[in-house]
Specification:
single chain, 280 residues, alpha/beta, Carbamate kinase, 8-stranded mixed sheet, two-stranded antiparallel sheet, globular
């Protein structure tokens, strides 16, 4: 079985993009060139008839840069203020860019409480379904403005996997600041080996995850990405970790070309999304 070739047939795709892929490292401000390419790629996937969901980080980082704070504040209140400013700016720019390609987009902000409550979870799924049926690209983020430790996902790697499971996506793509999964951290271990395909995400691979991130603005390291892979593959979706430095990688992945690390779907009968969320 050619796992890469099978990616051509995927019809419901969730794409997660991290803060480090959206912003300039030097200033923390939005990288508009990269953002424009991302939007064009997603719009073209929609033009192919695929359902597309974007899980976008960046609200706190954009707000922090706009307010001249020089990084994510440690204080919760200030961090949430940054999210309030940054989320509005981020969505305004997304809306403008998507309109250039005649593509509608909409905003969905979530916390853990959204999914822990049965009625809220049902309504959230219906909202996604309605938007996708109308050809809209939902843009999802954690509701950092109101989220506290007790009700937060904590990182958008996890959130994107939960969204993929919630809506029955058949592919999740995590755009990160690394090419994929390595046997060790390639930034500190020059001999680390790149892993192209993971057919069975067992403890051997999970131990490769380290709670580190290459950026000062992101929250998810390889450990969170492997955790996301466990959720997505158990729910029946393939997942790819790829470098988001060039968002053109999206169409290359969906053409079945050899980019990033592919985690093959391994649906489990005992997988129940609510149980996972409760144990987070």
């Amino acid at each position: 079985m050619n796992f890469r070739e099978a990616l051509r047939e995927k019809q419901r795709v969730v794409v997660k993009v991290g803060t480090s892929s959206l912003t300039h490292a030097e200033t923390g401000k939005l990288n508009l060139t990269r953002l424009e390419i991302l939007v064009r790629e997603l719009s073209d996937l929609r033009n192919q008839g695929k359902d597309v969901v974007l899980v976008s980080s960046g609200a706190i980082g954009v707000g922090s840069a706009a307010l001249g704070l020089g990084g994510k504040p440690a204080e919760l209140g200030k961090s949430q203020a940054c999210a309030a400013v940054g989320q509005a700016r981020l969505m305004m720019i997304y809306q403008k860019l998507f309109m250039e390609y005649n593509q509608m987009s909409g905003q969905i902000l979530m916390t853990k409480n959204t999914l822990l409550n049965d009625l809220n979870r049902y309504n959230a799924r219906n909202t996604f379904q309605a938007l996708l049926q109308m050809g809209v690209i939902p843009i999802v983020n954690e509701n950092d403005t109101v989220s506290t430790y007790e009700i937060q996902f904590g990182d958008n790697d996890t959130l994107s996997a939960i969204v993929a499971a919630l809506i029955g996506a058949d592919l999740l793509i995590l755009l990160s600041d690394i090419d994929g999964l390595f046997s060790d951290d390639p930034r500190t271990t020059p001999g680390a080996k790149f892993i192209d395909l993971v057919e069975n995400l067992d403890e051997h691979f999970l131990r490769m995850g380290k709670a580190t991130t290459g950026s000062k603005v992101g929250t998810g390291g390889m450990a969170t990405k492997l955790s996301a892979a466990k959720i997505a593959t158990s729910a029946g979706a393939d997942m790819v970790i790829a470098n988001g430095e060039d968002p053109h990688v999206l169409h290359k992945i969906l053409e079945g070309r050899d980019y990033g690390t592919l985690f093959a779907a391994n649906p489990r009968e005992e997988f129940y999304l609510l149980d996972y969320i409760k144990n987070m």
